[in-house]
Amino acid sequence: MTGTLIALGLAIVGITLAPPVRVLAQGGSPSVWGLGTARCERYLEAAQRSDQARRYVDWLQGFLTAAEWLTSSRVGDPQSAIVWLNEYCRQNAQAPLSTAAMALTSHLAERAKTGTGKGGAR
Fold it and tell me: What is the C-alpha separation between 8 and 76, in angstroms, rounded?
């Protein structure tokens, strides 16, 4: 019974993740919803206000969680990841937050591949 439930759960996860992985593998652009469509400058403004910052942090946590499932990126130190993202956004104020989050994901995956450092996104 437990084995059947685990198999069913894995099948559901596989079916759920297959379309996004296929789109990325084919060179397509995945859709972006919610706060990921906001520009970096808007994110940085919101980051100064704790009442608004939480929404962006929640979106980023969801994005990075999905990225960890689909790539070799690993966020060992969330605070370092936020520092890296903030610096990226300062340098690319007009970029969508999703682009910044993907750049962070790529940075973390490269660090994991080369083994340069553990933990955050420095």
Answer: 30
